[in-house]
Design brief:
Blueprint: H1 4-8, E1 15-16, E2 27-28, E3 34-39, H2 44-55, E4 60-67, E5 75-78, E6 81-84, E7 86-87, E8 98-101, H3 105-117, E9 121-124, E10 153-155, H4 159-175, E11 177-186, H5 193-208, H6 239-252, E12 258-265, E13 272-280, H7 286-295, E14 299-301, E15 322-329, E16 336-343, H8 347-363
Helix pairs in contact: 2-8, 4-6, 4-7, 4-8
């Protein structure tokens, strides 16, 4: 295993790959080293960022974990050492090259500009800046050239959007996308640690014959589905559904794309799945679609129905690629395809996409600074 210290010392050549049958980890190696911060280091996505930075042997001169005043003083382990968590405040960004933001939008709106003022590049997972025309919204496998236009802040998409586009983008390249309908099946980890605990407690209460209680969701999540993620808008769509529509347009560069989404919370701990019905400008075939998916670096083709081979959230938890299968001709759309994708919402939907963004900038020769 390559270590962060080895990378930082510049002893590794310019590109390397690490893979395993489970995680399929790959990374870009740089002879530079960087001072890296993480806002929200003690949260779910922050913890995944820390683990992935270590797994990718990201070239670190310093790792600076940042969090709320309540979490300041705690410690995290990295590379066999304990690092003290500092309070996320403006002066905490001094000297950093890049900071991954894994906090809520309100915190990010206040602190991200302060980081940029101090020369620190911000790669943000929240929705705070996604629709800002001056902020690139980036999935590195899809629109890396947008990274050249950043002004100090780079946004990562919503978790369900990122997973869905790992299946949809290679098909758009092959056939030219005209319209798409998403139906998501989103795990409780997308809500946070409290939601995971609520699902576990409800399952335990059910097994023991005790009453089931709820605090996180408006309805029981155990043995249930909840077609309600985020708040409802005046048009009847939730914020999550609206995000999928507008983010897909921006990332794909198709501002007039017809998009509709229904987002559903399901009693699964980790990884989101999306059912996709898409119409294209050019004629489609299942075989050509499978070839496009198989050739795309962000996706893995798992599509052998006769062998019950198709992606599931359990199989794609803690996997870097998203699994795509159930590819078939759509019987309601002209030049249409129906398909299914599963991917880890905490990895490709959040932490992994952010790290891949930084790695892509290094590979493109772009400086990791504001």
């Amino acid at each position: 295993m390559l270590t962060a210290m080895t990378r930082a010392e510049g002893l590794i050549p310019s590109v390397a790959h690490l893979s395993s049958s489970r995680s399929n980890i790959s990374f870009t190696v740089s002879n530079n080293s960087y001072r890296v911060g993480i806002v929200g280091a003690t949260g779910a996505v922050g913890q995944e960022l820390i683990a992935l930075l270590q797994a990718h042997a990201f070239p670190l001169a310093e790792l600076r974990p940042l969090a709320s005043a309540r979490s300041a003083g705690k410690s995290i382990e990295f590379g066999g050492k304990k690092i003290t968590v500092q309070e996320a405040r403006p002066d905490a960004f001094a000297g950093l090259n890049v900071c991954f933001f894994a906090a809520g939008g309100s915190v990010t709106k206040v602190l991200a500009p302060e980081a940029v003022k101090r020369g620190c590049l911000v790669i943000d997972k929240s929705s705070a800046f996604r629709m800002d025309p001056d902020v690139p919204l980036v999935v590195p496998e899809i629109n890396p050239e947008a990274l050249r236009r950043h002004k100090g802040i780079i946004a990562s998409p919503n978790c369900s959007t990122a997973v869905a586009l790992m299946a949809l983008f290679p098909l758009h390249q092959a056939f030219g996308l005209k319209r798409v309908v998403f139906s998501t099946y989103q795990s409780v980890s997308g809500t946070g640690a409290d939601a995971i605990l609520e699902l576990e407690q409800q399952a335990q209460a059910h097994a023991a014959g005790h009453p089931l209680t709820r605090e996180v969701y408006p309805h029981q999540i155990f043995q249930n589905l909840i077609p309600h993620i985020d708040s409802f808008g005046a048009d009847g769509y939730t914020g999550e559904e609206t995000k999928m529509c507008i983010e897909s347009r921006k990332i794909l560069g198709l501002m007039d794309l017809k998009v509709s989404a229904t987002c559903i919370r399901v009693p699964v701990v980790r990884a989101h799945s999306v059912s996709i019905n898409a119409e294209f400008a050019r004629p489609v075939t299942v075989e050509a679609a499978r070839q496009a998916i198989a050739a795309f670096p962000g996706a893995e083709l798992i599509d052998e129905p006769a062998r019950n081979a198709y992606p599931t959230p359990l199989a794609y938890s803690r996997r870097e690629k998203c699994g795509v299968g159930r590819i078939r001709l759509d019987t309601a759309l002209d030049n249409g395809l129906a398909l299914w994708v599963s991917g880890d919402n905490l990895w490709k939907g959040a932490a992994l996409n952010a790290i891949q963004t930084a790695e892509k900038m290094v590979a493109m020769g772009l400086p990791l600074k504001a």
